[in-house]
Specification:
Helices cover 19% and strands 30% of the residues. Strand 6 and strand 7 form a beta hairpin.
Length: 131
Protein backbone atom coordinates (compact mmCIF):
# COMPACT_ATOMS: atom_id res chain seq x y z
CA UNK A 1 0.00 0.00 0.00
CA UNK A 2 1.43 3.38 -0.96
CA UNK A 3 2.13 5.65 2.00
CA UNK A 4 0.49 8.59 0.23
CA UNK A 5 -2.89 6.87 0.60
CA UNK A 6 -2.32 6.43 4.33
CA UNK A 7 -1.86 10.14 5.02
CA UNK A 8 1.74 9.89 6.26
CA UNK A 9 5.20 8.95 5.06
CA UNK A 10 7.98 7.24 6.95
CA UNK A 11 11.02 9.50 6.92
CA UNK A 12 13.87 7.41 8.29
CA UNK A 13 15.28 6.29 11.60
CA UNK A 14 15.88 8.75 14.43
CA UNK A 15 18.16 6.44 16.41
CA UNK A 16 19.08 2.86 17.20
CA UNK A 17 19.14 1.68 20.80
CA UNK A 18 21.43 -0.98 22.22
CA UNK A 19 21.41 -2.34 25.75
CA UNK A 20 24.40 -2.03 28.08
CA UNK A 21 24.97 -3.36 31.60
CA UNK A 22 24.93 -0.99 34.58
CA UNK A 23 28.19 0.94 34.94
CA UNK A 24 29.41 0.32 31.38
CA UNK A 25 29.26 3.94 30.20
CA UNK A 26 33.07 4.26 30.29
CA UNK A 27 33.51 1.32 27.91
CA UNK A 28 30.86 2.83 25.65
CA UNK A 29 32.59 6.22 25.60
CA UNK A 30 35.90 4.55 24.75
CA UNK A 31 34.39 2.57 21.84
CA UNK A 32 31.67 4.81 20.38
CA UNK A 33 33.48 8.09 21.06
CA UNK A 34 37.15 7.14 21.07
CA UNK A 35 37.34 4.37 18.47
CA UNK A 36 34.44 5.29 16.16
CA UNK A 37 34.80 9.05 16.66
CA UNK A 38 31.14 9.77 17.39
CA UNK A 39 30.18 12.78 19.52
CA UNK A 40 28.49 12.14 22.85
CA UNK A 41 25.13 13.87 23.24
CA UNK A 42 23.71 15.24 26.47
CA UNK A 43 20.73 13.15 27.52
CA UNK A 44 17.59 14.96 28.69
CA UNK A 45 17.70 15.27 32.51
CA UNK A 46 14.73 12.93 33.02
CA UNK A 47 16.52 10.22 31.02
CA UNK A 48 20.05 10.91 32.27
CA UNK A 49 19.09 9.59 35.71
CA UNK A 50 18.60 6.14 34.16
CA UNK A 51 22.25 5.90 33.09
CA UNK A 52 23.51 5.04 29.64
CA UNK A 53 24.78 7.45 27.00
CA UNK A 54 23.96 8.68 23.52
CA UNK A 55 26.23 9.28 20.51
CA UNK A 56 25.86 10.88 17.09
CA UNK A 57 28.06 10.88 14.02
CA UNK A 58 27.70 10.69 10.26
CA UNK A 59 23.91 10.90 10.35
CA UNK A 60 23.66 8.01 12.82
CA UNK A 61 22.45 8.32 16.39
CA UNK A 62 23.00 5.48 18.87
CA UNK A 63 21.34 5.36 22.30
CA UNK A 64 22.93 3.02 24.81
CA UNK A 65 20.46 2.20 27.56
CA UNK A 66 21.10 0.40 30.84
CA UNK A 67 19.47 -3.00 31.18
CA UNK A 68 19.84 -4.78 34.52
CA UNK A 69 19.87 -8.31 33.06
CA UNK A 70 22.04 -7.31 30.08
CA UNK A 71 22.96 -9.90 27.47
CA UNK A 72 24.81 -8.78 24.33
CA UNK A 73 22.92 -8.94 21.03
CA UNK A 74 24.61 -11.59 18.91
CA UNK A 75 22.04 -11.81 16.11
CA UNK A 76 19.82 -8.72 16.28
CA UNK A 77 22.02 -5.74 15.41
CA UNK A 78 22.09 -2.36 13.74
CA UNK A 79 22.90 -3.10 10.11
CA UNK A 80 22.58 0.35 8.66
CA UNK A 81 25.98 1.68 9.60
CA UNK A 82 27.13 2.91 6.20
CA UNK A 83 30.80 3.79 5.87
CA UNK A 84 32.66 5.70 3.14
CA UNK A 85 35.92 3.74 3.56
CA UNK A 86 35.18 0.34 5.00
CA UNK A 87 38.78 -0.85 4.87
CA UNK A 88 40.02 2.18 6.82
CA UNK A 89 37.42 1.53 9.53
CA UNK A 90 38.30 -2.17 9.65
CA UNK A 91 41.97 -1.25 10.05
CA UNK A 92 41.16 1.20 12.87
CA UNK A 93 38.98 -1.30 14.71
CA UNK A 94 41.64 -3.99 14.38
CA UNK A 95 44.29 -1.58 15.69
CA UNK A 96 42.08 -1.06 18.76
CA UNK A 97 41.76 -4.78 19.41
CA UNK A 98 38.34 -5.28 17.83
CA UNK A 99 37.84 -8.45 15.76
CA UNK A 100 36.42 -7.86 12.28
CA UNK A 101 34.61 -10.63 10.37
CA UNK A 102 34.19 -9.97 6.65
CA UNK A 103 31.07 -11.21 4.85
CA UNK A 104 30.67 -10.89 1.08
CA UNK A 105 27.16 -12.33 0.87
CA UNK A 106 25.28 -9.02 0.49
CA UNK A 107 25.11 -8.01 -3.20
CA UNK A 108 26.04 -4.42 -3.94
CA UNK A 109 27.89 -3.93 -0.65
CA UNK A 110 31.10 -4.80 1.11
CA UNK A 111 30.45 -5.51 4.75
CA UNK A 112 31.87 -6.80 7.98
CA UNK A 113 30.68 -7.53 11.47
CA UNK A 114 32.35 -6.41 14.67
CA UNK A 115 31.29 -6.23 18.30
CA UNK A 116 31.39 -3.26 20.62
CA UNK A 117 33.26 -3.58 23.92
CA UNK A 118 30.20 -5.24 25.47
CA UNK A 119 29.70 -7.89 22.78
CA UNK A 120 26.84 -6.24 20.86
CA UNK A 121 27.11 -7.23 17.20
CA UNK A 122 27.39 -4.37 14.69
CA UNK A 123 27.26 -4.52 10.90
CA UNK A 124 29.22 -2.00 8.82
CA UNK A 125 28.50 -1.61 5.10
CA UNK A 126 29.91 0.21 2.12
CA UNK A 127 28.05 0.31 -1.20
CA UNK A 128 30.10 -0.89 -4.16
CA UNK A 129 29.73 0.06 -7.77
CA UNK A 130 28.76 -2.80 -10.03
CA UNK A 131 31.26 -3.29 -12.84
Amino acid sequence: MAQETLGYALGGLHHVQLAIPPGAEGLCREFWGGVLGMAELAKPPALAARGGCWFRGGGLEVHLGVEEDFRPNRKAHPGMILVSSLQALADRLTAHGVDVTWDDDFPGHRRFYACDRLGNRLEFLEPVRER
